Amino acid sequence: MDLDRKKSLKKGFLICVLIGTASLFTGCGFRQYERVEQTEGAGAEMTAVIEIQIDQTGTQTENAQDGIRSETVMETEKKADADSVTMLFAGDIYLSEYVLDAYQRAGGISGVLDAGYRQEIQDADFFFANEEFPFSDRGEAAADKQYTFRLPVERVAIFQELGIEGVTLANNHALDYGRTALLDTCETLDQAGIQHTGAGENLEAAMQPAVFTASGAKIAVVGATRVIPQADWAAGTSWTGMLSAYDPSTLISQVRALSQSGAYQAVIAYLHWGIERDETPQDYQRTMGKQLIDAGADLVIGAHPHVLQGIEYYQGKPIVYSLGNFIFGSSIPRTALLKVTWTGEASPVLTLLPGTSASGYTQILTDESKRNEFFQYMEGISEGIRLESDGTVKSLE
Asked: How do strand 217-225 and strand 266-272 relate by DSSP bridges?
């Protein structure tokens, strides 16, 4: 499905958002967000282990209840021309002032994302990313937090123009403006036809995967975070929040339930984890990535460090530790889209589409020498892989 058609189909959803929220938000002013730099600041967010305890609201390790509610999972379905399914994954996306300025100057999405990346999105079956902010006009900024992000609900139109069809909300910014703003985000995305996972009105909702169907194959993506500023951001049985992975048992149980259900040809775990600006995965990332694959995940993807981290294979399945920032602040020296193609094989084919970003404008690398430099860099921070000249990832296992 081409990008213009995506925008056309989703435009109706946006109208519903605007009409539906006009009365809801009457009298609520827009908060002017501050100019933010790309760096959030090392140590600005909590990255140490938090003991998750949620009194009278259930615990983070409560029963997953199989984690599958097919009647409530909105599925995105497309028909592919071949027997393969191709998904694109991006790291962190935040529509910062730099991005909005670039959008405004160009009069549209061409100021934010170049034609090369837009073509890749058009050609893919689905595009999924980490949404590093809430869509809302309500709520109060979290106290004692260095960076708080929020966008008005009408800005979801930019996601539609980007061709985004699914996001994880499990991160350290989804609750920047409280639970009301998080629920506004879920409703806005629903009405815009964009799936979401990793956060919701309670733990059961936060555990629900985004489900995509193409060429007769169903693919489930479940999001979780191991970076939250305080323990009560974790969802409970009657507590709005996100799926926390400080204790990974609930996430692991969910992945196992999805994998063993027989309903999905592939199960993907998308984690918010790691240390900001650190290109090396933490020991717990390596351990948890392998635990998730042992539980049945076919692919593990990460974000949060704002920089790229390496790739490795375990039991023949890939772990992509961090995709860094994709659309975010003033400068992203290295970024990439991860192209994932299933052709019925046990392990998907991965291809890195390298790029760079400045002043809110992200573009794909086309210069051969710069592409080769990028691939050499990725090989250097990865374990047991080789990158072909087209960006295809080869396991050396």
From this structure: parallel
Q: Which two tokens stand for residue 64?
A: 């997953």
Q: Report the alpha-carbon distance of residue 191 to residue 194 in Å, rounded.
A: 8
Do strands 217-225 and 210-214 pair parallel, antiparallel, or not at all (unpaired)? antiparallel
Contact, 177 vs 138, CB < 8 A? yes
Where do the DSSP E strands lie in the chain?
75-78, 85-93, 126-131, 166-168, 195-197, 199-200, 210-214, 217-225, 241-242, 266-272, 299-303, 311-314, 317-320, 325-327, 331-342, 349-358, 361-364, 385-387, 393-395
Residues 211, 166: contact at Cβ < 8 Å? no
- DSSP letter at 43 equals T
**How do strand 199-200 and strand 241-242 relate by DSSP bridges?**
antiparallel
For 367-397, what is each residue's pLDDT tens digit?
A: 999 999 999 999 999 999 999 999 999 999 8
250-268 pLDDT tens trace: 999 999 999 999 999 999 9
